[in-house]
Amino acid sequence: MHTEYVSVKHGLLALLEQRPMYGYQLRQEFESSTGSTWPLNVGQVYTTLARLERDGLVVPANGEDDSQRLYRLTEDGRSEVRGWFATPLRHESPRRDELAIKLALAVRTPGVDVRAVIQTQRTATVRTLQEYTRVRESAVDDLSWLLVADSLIFTAEAEIRWLDHCETRLARAQRSSSSPTTTPVSAPNQVVKQ
Amino acid sequence: MALSASFRAALRIARRDAWRNKGRSLLVIALIGLPVLVLSAVDVGWRTYQLSPAQRLTREIGAADLAVRSAGSATDAVQQTPQGWLDHSVGYATAPSTDHASEIPEPASDEAALRTMLPAGSRVISYIERESLTIRTKDGVEYAPLVGFDYADPIAKGKVKQLSGRAPRTADEIAITSKLSTRTGFKVGDTLTTYDKKSSYTVVGIVDSIYGRRDSGAYVIPSAVEGVSPGQRTWLVDTPGPFTWQQVLQLNKIGFVAISRQAYLHPPPKSQVPYYSLAPNSGGNTVSTSAVATITLVAGMALLEVVLLAGPAFAVSARRQRRDLALMAATGGRPGHLRNVVLANGVVLGLAAGVIGAVLGTGITGAAMGLFGGLIGQIPGPFDIRPLELGGVALVSLLTAVLAALVPARAAAKTDVVAALAGRRGQAAIKRRVPIIGTAVILIGILVALAGGSATRSINLLLAGIVITEFGLIICTPTLITLLAKLGRWLPFAPRLALRDATRNRSSAAPAVAAVMASVIGAIAIAIIATSQTDLDRRSYEPAMATNAAWVNDDYYGPGTPAADATDDAAVTSALRTALDTTSVSPVYRLGEPACLYDPTPSGPCSSANVSLEDPTATSRGELTGTRYRNSIFNNVVVDGGSAVSTLFGTPEPAAEAALRAGKVVVSDSAQLKNGMLTFWILTSTWDPTQPNAASGDPVKEMTVPAVAVDDGFAAAQAILPPALARSIAGEPVLEGWVAGLARRPTTKERQAVNKALVDIAPELQVRTEDGFRTSSEWALFALVGAAGLIALGAAAIATMLANVDGRADLVTLGAIGASPRTRRVVSMGRAGVIAGIGCVIGTAAGFVPAIAWIKRQALPGSSSGVISSDGFSATSQPSPLPPQLHLVVPWPVIALAAVGIPLIAMLFAGLFTRSRLPSERRPE
Amino acid sequence: MTTTSLAVQPVLNHPVLELRGVSRVHGHGDAVVTALDNVSLNVAAGEFVAVMGPSGSGKSTLLTIAGGLDSPTSGDVVVSNVRLGGLTRTNLAAVRRRSIGYVFQNLNLIPSLTAAENVMLPRELDGVPTRRARREAVAILAEIGLEALADRFPDDMSGGQQQRVAIARAIVGDRKLILADEPTGALDSVTGEEVLRLLRARCDAGAAAILVTHDARHAGWADRVVFLRDGKLVDETAPLDSPETLLVAEV
């Protein structure tokens, strides 16, 4: 995926900004900084490095005949990293969110208990949130790792809040008789626990 | 005056706030309204009792046109005011009889003379006041004024109120007042007999004098009263036309004073009243400035007390409004606006309290008049409300409330807007100069009080000192509370919380503490002064006899009077023994007196002898020999053969009895003996009634006899001579009276019984008993401290209630962390204890200042009479010992009650009136 | 914060808190409101349970009933093997003092008392001598790194500090059940996290805690999250895996 290449490319460049590194070192550092959230395989690393070398952003720092190549940034690479940090990310098109589509369809599909769908999702997301929280606390000393974990936590929280909001909106829609809805009103105890 | 829009807004906020916090508003209204209620009740009552001239006239002269009295001497013309004898200070005077004596018609004071002066067709009735009627009752004797007055006559209308029965018509009928009826038990139809059994009457009516239900009295028809002297008679006259002032002046010329309806209601100009030229300064008594100062002080302190009591409520309401005030400030309110909002609370509640207090006070007086109208002296006139005066009283409440709201209002103006909006309850620290100023004020106050107590001896200075000290203490109170709160660290939870709360809520706690303090200071000062005074009284008390002794004698009882014989002795002794619980009864004799003293037709000179223990020939004495003998009921020198001496001294004195039997003298001061011998002087006076102007010196003879001293306790007499010695000096001793030792203090019934028995023996015999020094002031002191305690309890209650309301949130927390339900009560008790405790302890300590100043003032040389100059010379033969001085005597029980008891009681009440339940708890219904 | 242990304590003794079929009804007749409807919940020692639900779902009622401040209309509440039903108010208070610690969103500390005095309060109320209670309080404050605040008054502390002092008060005297009602409500997210981290740490040290919140991020700290809706328990999260497996689970 193009976007993935972009973030891996900039991630590696940012790591090389600290010091020259070997390819396997780069992989390790990337994973530990992002809390293994985006695992990289070695091939991906070397492919990216090759492209970067081609673009003149990195150069090997040791002799070509060494079995392991040590990479360092060029001036172009350095300005590329600076530019990356200075430029905001742009979400060019809305992500296709499966959950949103699921709920949108659930509202229109007869016989589906939307509240149960929401609750099931919420329970699952809260559980994910619990896990993120726990993982984050296990590495509380690593600031960059914390930021990434926080990003995940806040995303999950946002989803839960969105679910809460959906539920409130749903309840309101059910209450107002004017709104023609096909959603069946189901008793909460129909929800299957776990 | 148009109210500014912003103040109107403040008033509106205050009104809403008062309505929303009904409990607190009611509390403030009650506090401020109570004095208003009392004042307006008093005002209405006073106005109602204050009679109009017509009402007063009716009470004095009934429906008559004229009342006439003889001026007494009936030899001279009199001059009078148009008010006659009716208006207190204005009187009448006998005119100087020098110049015009010859022109005055022959003065007369009888009815016939009066009638000649009255216009034709006049009708006259008499109103005669005799001193008293002695009535035989079931239990003894009762006295009542006797009035000869046909009150059923139309002229008399308005002077006497018939309650039951009818008016007397014949000489053997009588009407008695309701008071006399309840005292004696006589009812209509009973027969009433005088003590001497000379007259008896049938009771035909029960009446009340128009002057009030308290008066005892009896009415008969005028002709039934015998032996009337001119001054006792008043004539009420019904004239065909008005009796003019000129006619009154004519009556004056023949020695009559008169009250004419015409002249009384329409007084002539002063120029026509000769009395005014005679006594221009009559009337108009001035009130002394110091009395005005004292009244102002008392009123001011009462007002201060109310301000202090109401202050906490306004402080709490201001704190409650903190957020509102901050919002106001945030939307552009100036500090002045914020202050006005809090002040408006005072205006609203003060007005409400004023109106409610005035209305209730008026109503209560109205109701009380109807129920108890005549009980306090006289029957009131018609209900009299003065709206202007009541309005003034209500304004006082407005002033009080605004004053009470002033300090919180000033604080509100300084609200920290940011902190208030953030919901922090922070309180500004006390400025450092405040306690310094306060301490300085206290010191100045103490100095002024002490100065008033010593240097200038100005009572006003002393009072000013007390007030200044009190203000200083009030200024220091917040700092003091803060300092005390630091001690909280070592205290258990409840008092610690209470102390810290008091600090945090200084604005409400400080005035409450000050209120407690102010009331306790006054009570303690008065208690100390009164106790010291009582102590002085006790030390100065001079018993007339040994304690629990009874003494029977009569002034005329002596050798010249026929009653002094052995039969009387036996009768009196047996009467005393029967009626009283006696331990001993003995006759007491004094030195003999020559019979010629009582001889109405003396034929020649006779001489009497007297005994003095001081050398009458000495011209001066080097030092005073103070003797404990002061004013015993007995003569200095008593004659006794040994039978009465123990009773005289109140203790068994076998040695003295033996000495008297052995012919020795007994004295009550061992300092008078030298080697068992007493030296005394016999003064012999010779008196020749046939030659009253013949000079005769008093020959003096010195004598030294063996004597013993009874030197313990009470000194009954200077010297007791054995009969043989007495005979050798002045012949046969005479019976002076009887002394009885009593096992206990006689009851009222016993007193009445012995009186009756003695009167039956001889009418002049009197019995006196010596009860020792008695004082009722101790109970008065406790009552005083009790009253101060009530104020203190009130202040503590208010502050505790407010703190409890304020600390409700804390109680929720306490409940959640597992405080037992009792904790609420304990915390409440702690709060009451802190407020009352601080106030009482400081107040008690501070109360010493004025007391000490006062006692110092009293003890200053020259401030009390009877201190003898240092050379000790005194012209009287009786040396005057130095009078006892006022010492500081501390009434420890009262102090303990104030300092410890009141706080404990406050805590007890707080405990009793606090629910043992935490607000965080809920249970299913 | 180095004491943080990730493992759920495998202590499976009797639960510290047991709610058995608890219902709570307010009012009568037409005005009946069912705040809790047949709720059963066990909280074991060392367990951190979050209760989530919209406003009015009965979260706070659950907490007041668990703490003995309110009594259920039916059902049983057992705290540390003591049935609360039938206890007198005084005995209930004693249970609160000895076994339960409350932490609220606000109204937490008594403003007239210093931090140390607030913390020592439950011990003092329990009759422990003031001196000893103060020592214990200072020790607890030191344990959570707040000894510097011991003599400060609540008004002089930040919100986060106040809440942490409140937690210290909730655990002083070795109490095993912490009931927290939106304790982070008035705090910013980082300060709120500190408070939750402290709660988490206490649970890891063996306490049981119930956290009532509507904030999912805070619920994330819990071992278990239960969902309340209209007074009923509608769902709860599955037990967490051990942290080592988490990464795998995510990928």
Describe the overall structure:
The complex is a heterotrimer of chains A (194), B (925) and C (251). Chain A has seven helices and three strands. With 194 residues, chain A is mainly alpha-helical. Chain A has a three-stranded antiparallel sheet with strand order 1-3-2. Chain A starts with a helix and ends in a 19-residue tail after the last helix. Chain B is an alpha+beta fold and 925 residues long. In chain B, a hairpin with a 4-residue loop joins strand 4 (123-136) and strand 5. In chain B, the strands form three sheets. In chain B, strands 13, 14, 15, 16, 17, 18, 19, 20, 21, 22 and 23 form an eleven-stranded mixed sheet that branches. In chain B, strands 1, 4, 5, 6, 7, 8, 9, 10, 11 and 12 form a ten-stranded mixed sheet that branches. Chain B is globular and about 115 Å long. Chain C is globular and about 50 Å long. Chain C has 251 residues and is α/β, with parallel strands linked by helices. In chain C, strands 6-7-8-3-9-10 form a six-stranded mixed sheet, with helices on both faces. A four-stranded antiparallel sheet of chain C has the order 2-1-4-5, with helices on one face. Mean pLDDT of chain C is 82; it is low at 1-12 and 245-251. Chains in contact: A-C, B-C. The interface between B and C is large, with 35 and 40 residues.
Oligomerization category of the chains in this entry: heterotrimer
Computed over alpha carbons, the radius of gyration of chain C is: 18 Å
Helix content of chain C: 25-40%
Helix-and-strand structural type of chain C: alpha/beta
The main pleated sheet of chain B reads as: 11 strands, mixed
End-to-end C-alpha gap of chain C: 28 Å
Strand content of chain B: 5-15%
Unreliable residue stretches of chain C? 1-12, 245-251
As a whole number of angstroms, the C-alpha radius of gyration of chain B is 37 Å
The count of β-strands of chain C is 10
Q: Would you tell me the structural class of the helices and strands of chain B?
A: alpha+beta
